[in-house]
Write a structure and sequence with these properties.
Elements lengths: L10 H8 L13 E4 L5 H10 L1 E4 L5 H8 L4 E4 L7 H5 L6 E4 L9 H6 L3 E3 L6 H16 L2 H9 L17 E5 L3 H12 L3 E5 L5 H9 L2 E3 L2 H7 L2 E4 L13 H6 L5 E4 L8 H9 L5 E4 L17 E3 L8 H19 L10
Helix pairs in contact: 2-13, 6-8
The chain binds D-malate (MLT).
Length: 342
């Protein structure tokens, strides 16, 4: 069992110690932690005071496998995929710490098989993601990036920038979890008529949401009747490509779509076609199928694209950093982090 591996010195140091030689223990006596995605600088500083930390941002998979071969823990976000073969060939690995919410980039079965604890940090960035979703809605409905480009180019064509107000419109939220609930609350505050859908709709939940001023209905109804749709559901077998060509065809041609759900929930080629054919007024995406390069959607003017920055506020990253340090300490000591997944 990997948990029984010592977090202490390598064997050759142990034998030197047995010979009663006086050696000062090097940093390698500490548990080794590999950080492959950006985390708050204050959290990184603190990690360095407890562990032997290596930072290598977003290595290719061969380099990742090599780096991980002598590490006790890895800290990652959504920018890295951690497949089963890499987990299985990391003999010291005991902890995978996901500095964020989604764990779809980690092979959880392989982690289970290898007795590696995986924990994540849900909820603390939900407000940040919800605020970004509303920001994206404003940006696309008021053509902010386009307006900004006009001013920078010295070409002021205000008539081409007439936008849409949010007040009085119907906001449809697909997925009323932590993030979706905040989005719904902000929408209500903006004077929007808010409806939403959840995975399992019960009479009790419908009543609770109605009391909060939100109409709980089907996703089909949300898509067909909303002026603005925000997708904020988790990625599951059921939600993969939930927003496909058929779903997009059901939306109104004056409607806007915002995606802050995991990549894969929205079928990006289908969205590209719908936007190009002007069957939708516009879309904004913070989450993309690949986390680098320029998506095909960037060719279109009625689209706002951000590089998965929903959780990127100093506030949220500080909260994530704090929780990460506490979780790592517990997990490396062989205990369960409060948000242990497997
Ligand atoms: C999350 O799951 O919390 C997000 O993907 C944030 C991130 O990793 O950047």
């Amino acid at each position: 069992m990997r948990g029984s591996l010592p977090r202490t010195r390598p064997l050759f140091l142990a034998s030197l110690a047995q010979l009663e030689l006086s050696v000062s223990l090097p940093d390698s006596d500490l548990a080794r932690v590999l950080v492959v995605d950006p985390i708050a600088p204050s959290a990184l500083d603190e990690l360095r005071t407890h562990y032997d930390v290596t930072v290598r941002l977003r290595p290719e998979s061969a380099e990742l496998a090599h780096l991980l071969s002598d590490q006790d823990a890895i800290v990652l976000r959504s920018g890295i995929k951690l497949p089963g073969d890499i987990i299985a060939t990391a003999p010291r690995l005991r902890v995978i710490a996901r500095a964020g919410n989604g764990v779809d980039n980690i092979d959880l079965d392989a982690a289970r098989e290898a007795d590696v604890q995986v924990f994540n940090i849900p909820s603390v960035s939900s407000r940040a993601v919800a605020e970004l979703a509303i920001g994206l809605l404003f940006s696309v409905a008021r053509h902010l990036p386009l307006a900004d480009r006009q001013v920078r180019a010295g070409s002021w064509r205000k008539a081409s920038l007439a936008g849409t107000e949010l007040n009085g419109k119907t906001l449809g939220v697909v997925g009323l979890g932590d993030i979706g609930s905040y989005i719904a609350a902000i929408g209500l505050g903006l004077g929007m008529n808010v409806i939403g859908s959840v995975g399992v709709r019960t009479a009790e939940r419908t009543k609770q949401w109605a009391a909060a001023g939100v109409g709980l209905t089907t996703t089909a109804e949300v898509l067909a009747t909303s002026d603005m749709v925000v997708v904020a559901c988790p990625l599951t077998d059921f939600t993969r490509h939930l927003i496909n060509a058929q779903a997009l065809a059901a939306m109104q041609s004056h409607a806007y779509l915002v995606n802050v759900a995991r990549a894969g929930v929205v079928d990006e080629p289908a969205l590209y076609t719908a936007l190009k054919e002007r069957r939708l007024a516009g879309a904004a995406l913070d989450v993309h199928t690949t986390e680098s390069g320029t998506p095909a959607l960037a060719e279109l003017d009625n689209v706002v694209l951000t590089p998965h920055i929903g959780a990127m506020t100093h506030d949220a990253q500080d909260r994530i950093g704090r929780t990460l340090i506490d979780g790592l300490e517990l997990a490396l000591a062989g205990h369960d982090a409060p948000t242990r997944i497997c």
